Amino acid sequence: MSRRSAQGARTSWRERVHWEMVGALAGIGGLIAALAALRTGGEPNPPAPPTPTVTVTASIPDTESATPSSRSRSRTPKPTAEEDPSTEPPDPTGSTEPARSACVMTPGECRLEEMLGSADLRNCRPAARPPAGAVAALDCAAVRSGPGHDPMIVLFRSDTDAETWVESYWWALHDGRGGNCATGAEYKGTWVRGKLLCTINGPYYAMSWTYTGQSVAMTAEAWTPQPLYAWWQGLSLLSD
């Protein structure tokens, strides 16, 4: 055999061995893939593509020059009705009487106003013509119809001073007639809480009365007696 024929034979043998090894490796790879598919129950999942990394650079604005849009990124939750101090809780007592504003008068006048029922009298203010010897005197608007103008309420130092002031109306205005306050006649006597006086004062019918034990007197006038008397009968008692 010539040298060229021998070299060709060796080359063919090497190529055959090479391809046999390539075939064996391919068979081994197929076997590994088949085993992986059987273990996972199907075809192997392809590897997930890498997640791109995004870098965001944000500048923090100066609080003095921040725009509304930059400040709106940080929001404070709106308080609920229980947390909001501006929301007033409901009145548990269910009272329908109008609330009185803080008293800005003298201590004696404020004390007298606290004794009055807000369902009968409101918008009290220092009396325009307080009687002599009074501790405090108020002119108050009547809530219900009856008086022709605002009644006056007076606080004295004693029950005697209050009764003396009421009886002064009798001596100044009494014309000798006597009768029943409900009918518009003159009357001087008592009622369940103290003294009561009904007189004619010019064009008005006047009623004056006291609250024994509280040193308080009140007077009111009207054009006609019946509405005034009905208003007086519906008055609430003074508080202590």
Rg (C-alpha, Å): 52 Å
Determine the structural class based on helices, strands and strand pairing: alpha+beta
Q: Which geometry do the CA atoms define? A: rod-shaped
What share of the residues does DSSP label as strand, in percent?
15-25%
The strands making up the biggest β-sheet line up spatially as 1-2-3-7-6-5-4
Work out the number of β strands: 7
Low-confidence stretches: 54-74
Task: Tell me the span between the first and last alpha carbons.
Answer: 146 Å
The residue fraction in helices comes out at: 25-40%
The run of helices and strands is HHHEEEHEEEEH
**How many helix segments?**
5
Mean pLDDT: 74
User: Major β-sheet, in short?
Assistant: 7 strands, antiparallel
Can you walk through the features of this model?
This protein is of the alpha+beta class and 240 residues long. It has five helices and seven strands, in the order H-H-H-E-E-E-H-E-E-E-E-H. A seven-stranded antiparallel β-sheet has the order 1-2-3-7-6-5-4. The longest helix has 38 residues. About 9% of the residues have low confidence.
Detail the topology: elements first, then pairings.
Elements: H1 3-40, H2 68-71, H3 107-115, E1 121-126, E2 136-142, E3 152-155, H4 159-173, E4 187-191, E5 194-201, E6 204-211, E7 216-222, H5 225-233
Antiparallel strand pairs: 1-2, 2-3, 3-7, 4-5, 5-6, 6-7
Output the keywords.
7-stranded antiparallel beta sheet, 31% helix, 240 residues, alpha+beta, single chain
Summarize the structure.
With 240 residues, the protein is an alpha+beta fold. The chain is 31% helix and 19% strand.
